[in-house]
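Exercise 7. Given the encoded structure of a 348-residue chain, write a plausible sequence.
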């Protein structure tokens, strides 16, 4: 069995952070989202992994390499244009050959193990398995209709959903998926939809099994969802603990876990947490309170007298301010600087 992770998307909803790096490399609990996907595959014994990327996303092979750091073998597959999930799968056929494969979306995080996905394939002797999850806004997702335990239809973003069970970013397919994809026409948005391919398989009488996720799931597609994913990943990995990296200095600080502090950081006279991840080389000096936030590499916050919550600070960004407020949410892109002088005026 092989693995396939799709990472060719533009990530426009994560601007400004996805201007400088692919969204699948943005960190959740100080690890790129893509790394979490790779480890999910390794947990079920899948080590031969293809990653679909846009040719311009050179940072992904630079970061992931050949897979040896994970004990995996990585093959890169180019998708020049974002023409949909099914198109990306079709572009990967030479790599996948005739083996069954697990398909993951590289910007999705799933708490559940993929064991149930594999078990559904083995026990049902199916031609594919999809992972489902209950959602609050089914019209925003590909929605599955299940009747008497059988998956009978899948529809992409229906105006009148037949259920609240969304097809989330974890699938297992066999070779009939390629014939189904070849029969597709582009959707109204000009993409080849994986939900249409699944429906084509069902219409041909092929068996598509399903499993319903019991744990949390999110796509890291917006800043809000990124912060949400970071929050529950920190809670899962640390509980209420605090982890401090090598050569980091923490002086006169109150830290409320879960908080993850990278290497070479300096924190002085601050209240931090809960749910804060701090990457390598960050400086936090005289900060009143930072909660539920992400600080990327080499960012610096100094003399911030108000509470920061639900904030993201880009790489090498700088915030210095003495303007007193009750609370603020700040989104600051890479290499940006804001200075709020003590007199009360704003200067950027």
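Solution.
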């Amino acid at each position: 069995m092989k693995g396939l992770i799709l990472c060719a998307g533009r990530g426009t909803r994560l601007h400004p952070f996805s201007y400088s790096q692919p969204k699948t490399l943005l960190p959740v609990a100080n690890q790129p989202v893509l790394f979490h996907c790779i480890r999910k595959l390794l947990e079920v014994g899948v080590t031969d992994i293809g990653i679909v990327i846009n040719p311009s996303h050179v940072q992904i092979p630079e970061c992931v390499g050949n897979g040896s750091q994970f004990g995996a073998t990585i093959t890169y597959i180019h998708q020049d244009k974002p023409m949909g999930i099914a198109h990306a799968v079709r572009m990967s056929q030479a790599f996948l050959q005739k083996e069954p494969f697990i398909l993951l979306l590289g910007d999705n995080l799933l708490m559940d193990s993929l064991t149930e996905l594999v078990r559904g394939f083995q026990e049902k002797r199916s031609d594919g398995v999809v992972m489902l999850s209950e959602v609050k806004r089914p019209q925003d997702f590909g929605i599955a209709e299940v009747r008497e335990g059988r998956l009978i239809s899948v529809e992409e973003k229906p105006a009148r959903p037949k259920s609240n069970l969304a097809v989330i970013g974890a699938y297992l397919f066999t070779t009939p998926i390629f014939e189904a994809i070849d029969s597709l026409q582009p959707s109204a948005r000009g993409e080849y939809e994986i939900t249409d391919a699944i429906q084509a398989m069902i219409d041909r009488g092929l068996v598509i099994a399903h499993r319903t996720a019991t744990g949390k799931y999110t796509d890291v597609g917006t800043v809000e969802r990124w912060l949400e994913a970071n929050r529950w990943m920190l809670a899962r990995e640390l509980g209420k603990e605090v982890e401090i990296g090598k050569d980091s200095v923490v002086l006169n600080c109150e830290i409320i876990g879960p908080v993850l502090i990278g290497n070479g950081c300096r924190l002085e006279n601050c209240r931090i947490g809960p749910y804060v991840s701090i990457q390598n080389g960050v400086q936090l000096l005289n900060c009143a309170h930072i909660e539920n936030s992400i600080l990327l590499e080499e960012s610096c916050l100094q003399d911030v007298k108000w509470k920061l919550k639900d904030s993201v600070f880009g790489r090498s960004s700088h915030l210095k301010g003495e303007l007193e407020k009750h609370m603020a949410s700040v989104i600051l892109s890479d290499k940006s600087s804001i200075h709020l002088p003590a007199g009360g005026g704003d200067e950027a």
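Remark. The chain has two domains: 2-223, 240-340. Students should compare their own answers with the one above.
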